[in-house]
């Protein structure tokens, strides 16, 4: 009798002590070790090269532009994409970063972000479109997207290093994973939000499902897709800083190095650079979203 | 052109469950309570002739929009068959087409105009009109040229580069109409196209649609909840209630002889003067109120009891050759001629008018402002078949019917004998 009472007491106060701790840690360690020992070569020889290649190409291209011309270019882009105000703001913001002496780091960060966003679009857009066409696929994607978005980045930095080594590539891979979900989610949402009256009209004229997608749904979803792109860029920027811990360069490295050496000034210069770059990219992509043709209603 | 047989559409996850209940004669709400399925259209059959405007009229929820979407299978009918007279292949059953062939049908033979226009906001007006041609795979130049012609026709030739949001509602629906016409489809489905427009613009658009339809000879299936609109543009009208067609006929048939209480309530406030024809309201010449008064020169003179001084001289075919009032010869003219020639406001006492039996009441009324004498109604061969005097006009407007449809005794005769 007293034994039963004791069991009841323990069930209430300490139910987890009844069993040995679930060895999740061990499982994950084993799983990661297994993946690393079996697939390291695969990852390094098939995943790294395109990412590294794209990054180097973009970086080389951006570095080849003389800073003065770069600033004029950013003014023109801001002006065409949004307004002359945004152009002027972009010009001043990036010039400020240059005057703070971190122009080279800025160009590296921009290359990292552009590379990551490029891959996010390349993978995220088709996945988003697939989600919009199949409820089943969308339901299967949802938990994966949740994991990608909410797992603290520090957690998967270590396996990334184990798989890809130190440097820009693991940082980029982590950034791509972290920044992709909004691209997928908002592409899906944008296409699903297109009013049935337009789809009905397209159907009534004998459009194929593919024609409906590319002539009606996607163009009308563009403002939402652009909002997703904007989010992806912002997330990529924030992740690029964290990726400095595993050897990615640029403004993030300035922040990280500054912190390590307790050089507050250096850290802040890097931080301000990132904020300014974020604002510039945000204004420009928002401008693009507002000018997207689907908005003209 | 289009023939529907027993078309039924039930919405819900298990439409089959509602079919036996429908056959058992249960109502819409009963079925919904019992099975959770919603009956949209039930056992509807009709046929549309080539080149006519066939109007489906009913209040919201009567299933008319569902029915029109069953015809191009935007909604898949639950039961029934729909046939289309294909220009090359003869009669084709739409309800049995594969996806690919259905798309071909929609691309080339059947287009649609929507209540809320459904213009693509991201395309210019020209590209909206050209959409169907683009889907057909026409080259850019060709489709733009054709789309421009269509825009000219609906009076928006200068607006090709504008975007739909820059246009007023009436203009947007002109674009919608141009888009529907551009594919050269022989059948145009129009789902309450003018309901969202202001009344004045609406009437304009109706007139224009009639004009364009006569010009291009398309077959039009037109949905509306507005009886006056239905009467104005329809060659045939089908009235729907609770997913079923409760009366089908020409505007005049429906107005003169509403089959149910529901239809009667509908037509109560309709304007009869543009719909009811002279043949319907005329006092027939063979009724007891006319008698032969004399014969001379091969002509037979007849007179009505209530106007014995007026003698109509008919030849052996029954055509009017001469008319006399108190022995005085009267001038005889056709109604159209009289309206054209006679001065407004001068009401003559010596002019007798003839009008064909399909002349609408309004026209006869107009004629009466030019002369004080009755109007004679003729058939296709020009034979006099009846007479319209003030009494017939008033009864036509008030009762929306003539003496032939009247079950009560003939008031003309009563008054004449009293």
UniProtKB/TrEMBL annotation, chain A:
<keyword id="KW-1003">Cell membrane</keyword>
<feature type="transmembrane region" description="Helical">
    <location>
        <begin position="57"/>
        <end position="79"/>
    </location>
</feature>
<keyword id="KW-0472">Membrane</keyword>
<keyword id="KW-1133">Transmembrane helix</keyword>
<feature type="transmembrane region" description="Helical">
    <location>
        <begin position="86"/>
        <end position="106"/>
    </location>
</feature>
<comment type="similarity">
    <text>Belongs to the binding-protein-dependent transport system permease family.</text>
</comment>
<dbReference type="Pfam" id="PF00528">
    <property type="entry name" value="BPD_transp_1"/>
</dbReference>
<protein>
    <submittedName>
        <fullName>Proline/glycine betaine ABC transporter permease</fullName>
    </submittedName>
</protein>
<dbReference type="InterPro" id="IPR000515">
    <property type="entry name" value="MetI-like"/>
</dbReference>
<feature type="transmembrane region" description="Helical">
    <location>
        <begin position="112"/>
        <end position="132"/>
    </location>
</feature>
<feature type="transmembrane region" description="Helical">
    <location>
        <begin position="264"/>
        <end position="281"/>
    </location>
</feature>
<feature type="transmembrane region" description="Helical">
    <location>
        <begin position="153"/>
        <end position="180"/>
    </location>
</feature>
<keyword id="KW-0812">Transmembrane</keyword>
<dbReference type="InterPro" id="IPR035906">
    <property type="entry name" value="MetI-like_sf"/>
</dbReference>
<feature type="transmembrane region" description="Helical">
    <location>
        <begin position="233"/>
        <end position="257"/>
    </location>
</feature>
<keyword id="KW-0813">Transport</keyword>
<feature type="domain" description="ABC transmembrane type-1">
    <location>
        <begin position="106"/>
        <end position="285"/>
    </location>
</feature>
TrEMBL record, chain B:
<keyword id="KW-1003">Cell membrane</keyword>
<keyword id="KW-0067">ATP-binding</keyword>
<dbReference type="InterPro" id="IPR027417">
    <property type="entry name" value="P-loop_NTPase"/>
</dbReference>
<dbReference type="InterPro" id="IPR005892">
    <property type="entry name" value="Gly-betaine_transp_ATP-bd"/>
</dbReference>
<dbReference type="InterPro" id="IPR017871">
    <property type="entry name" value="ABC_transporter-like_CS"/>
</dbReference>
<keyword id="KW-0472">Membrane</keyword>
<dbReference type="InterPro" id="IPR003593">
    <property type="entry name" value="AAA+_ATPase"/>
</dbReference>
<comment type="similarity">
    <text>Belongs to the ABC transporter superfamily.</text>
</comment>
<protein>
    <recommendedName>
        <fullName>Quaternary amine transport ATP-binding protein</fullName>
        <ecNumber>7.6.2.9</ecNumber>
    </recommendedName>
</protein>
<dbReference type="InterPro" id="IPR051921">
    <property type="entry name" value="ABC_osmolyte_uptake_ATP-bind"/>
</dbReference>
<keyword id="KW-0813">Transport</keyword>
<dbReference type="InterPro" id="IPR003439">
    <property type="entry name" value="ABC_transporter-like_ATP-bd"/>
</dbReference>
<keyword id="KW-0547">Nucleotide-binding</keyword>
<comment type="subunit">
    <text>The complex is probably composed of two ATP-binding proteins, two transmembrane proteins and a solute-binding protein.</text>
</comment>
<dbReference type="GO" id="GO:0005524">
    <property type="term" value="F:ATP binding"/>
</dbReference>
<feature type="domain" description="ABC transporter">
    <location>
        <begin position="2"/>
        <end position="267"/>
    </location>
</feature>
<dbReference type="Pfam" id="PF00005">
    <property type="entry name" value="ABC_tran"/>
</dbReference>
<keyword id="KW-0997">Cell inner membrane</keyword>
């Amino acid at each position: 009798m007293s034994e039963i009472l004791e069991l009841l007491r323990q069930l209430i106060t300490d139910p987890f002590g009844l069993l040995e701790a679930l060895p999740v840690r061990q499982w994950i360690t084993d799983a990661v070790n297994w993946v690393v020992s079996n697939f390291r070569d695969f990852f390094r020889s098939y995943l790294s090269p395109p990412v590294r290649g794209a990054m180097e190409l973009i970086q080389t291209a951006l570095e080849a532009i003389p800073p003065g011309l770069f600033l004029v270019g950013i003014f023109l882009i801001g002006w065409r994409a949004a307004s002359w105000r945004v152009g002027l703001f972009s010009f001043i913001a990036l010039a400020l970063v240059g005057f703070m002496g971190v122009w080279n780091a800025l160009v590296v960060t921009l290359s990292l972000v552009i590379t990551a966003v490029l891959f996010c679009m390349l993978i995220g857009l088709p996945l988003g479109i697939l989600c919009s066409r199949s409820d089943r696929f969308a339901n299967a994607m949802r938990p994966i997207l949740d994991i990608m978005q909410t797992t603290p980045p520090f957690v998967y930095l270590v396996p990334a290093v184990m798989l890809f080594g130190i440097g820009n590539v693991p940082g980029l891979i982590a950034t791509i994973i972290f920044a992709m979900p909004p691209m997928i989610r908002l592409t899906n949402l944008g296409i699903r939000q297109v009013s049935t009256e337009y789809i009905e009209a397209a159907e009534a004229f004998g459009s194929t499902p593919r024609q409906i997608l590319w002539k009606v749904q996607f163009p009308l979803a563009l403002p939402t897709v652009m909002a997703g792109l904007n989010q992806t860029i912002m997330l990529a920027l924030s992740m690029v800083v964290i990726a400095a811990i595993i050897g990615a360069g640029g403004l993030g490295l300035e922040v990280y190095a500054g912190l390590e050496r307790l050089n507050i000034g250096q850290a802040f210069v890097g931080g301000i650079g990132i904020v300014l770059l974020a604002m510039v990219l945000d204004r420009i992509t928002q401008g693009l979203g507002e000018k997207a043709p689907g908005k003209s209603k | 052109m289009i023939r529907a047989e027993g078309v039924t559409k039930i919405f819900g996850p298990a439409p089959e469950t509602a079919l036996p209940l429908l056959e058992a004669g249960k109502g819409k709400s009963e079925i919904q309570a019992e099975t959770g399925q919603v009956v949209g259209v039930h056992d509807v059959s009709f046929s549309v002739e080539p080149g006519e405007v066939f109007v489906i009229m009913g209040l919201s929820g009567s299933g008319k929009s569902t029915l029109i979407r069953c015809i191009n299978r935007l909604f898949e009918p639950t039961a029934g068959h729909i046939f289309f007279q294909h220009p090359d292949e003869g009669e084709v059953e739409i309800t049995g087409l594969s996806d690919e062939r259905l798309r071909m049908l929609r691309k080339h033979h059947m287009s649609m105009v929507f209540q809320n226009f459904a213009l693509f906001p991201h395309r210019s007006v020209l590209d909206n009109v050209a959409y169907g041609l683009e889907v057909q795979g026409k080259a850019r130049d060709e489709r733009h040229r054709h789309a421009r012609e269509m825009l000219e026709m609906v009076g928006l030739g200068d607006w090709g580069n504008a975007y739909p949001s820059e246009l007023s509602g009436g203009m947007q629906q002109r674009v919608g109409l141009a888009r529907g016409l551009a594919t050269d489809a022989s059948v145009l489905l129009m789902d309450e196209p003018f309901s969202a427009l202001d009344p004045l613009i609406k009437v304009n658009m109706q007139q224009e649609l009639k004009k364009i339809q006569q010009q291009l000879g398309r077959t039009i299936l037109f949905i509306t909840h507005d009886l006056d609109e239905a009467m104005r543009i329809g060659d045939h009208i089908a009235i729907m209630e609770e997913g079923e067609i409760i009366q089908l006929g020409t505007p005049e048939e429906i107005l003169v002889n509403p089959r149910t209480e529901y239809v009667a309530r509908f037509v109560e406030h309709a304007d009869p003067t543009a719909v009811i024809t002279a043949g319907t309201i005329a006092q027939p010449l063979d009724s007891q109120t006319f008698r032969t008064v004399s014969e001379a020169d091969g002509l037979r003179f007849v007179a009505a009891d209530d106007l014995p001084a007026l003698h109509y001289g008919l030849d052996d075919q029954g055509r009017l050759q001469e008319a006399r009032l108190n022995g005085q010869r009267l001038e005889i003219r056709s109604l159209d001629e009289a309206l054209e020639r006679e001065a407004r406001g001068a009401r003559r006492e010596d002019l007798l008018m003839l009008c064909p039996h399909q002349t609408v009441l309004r026209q006869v009324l107009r004629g009466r402002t030019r002369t004080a004498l009755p109007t004679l109604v003729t058939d296709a061969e020009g034979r006099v078949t009846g007479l319209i005097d003030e009494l017939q006009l008033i009864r036509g407007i008030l009762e929306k019917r003539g003496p032939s449809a009247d079950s009560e005794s003939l008031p003309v005769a009563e008054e004449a004998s009293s």
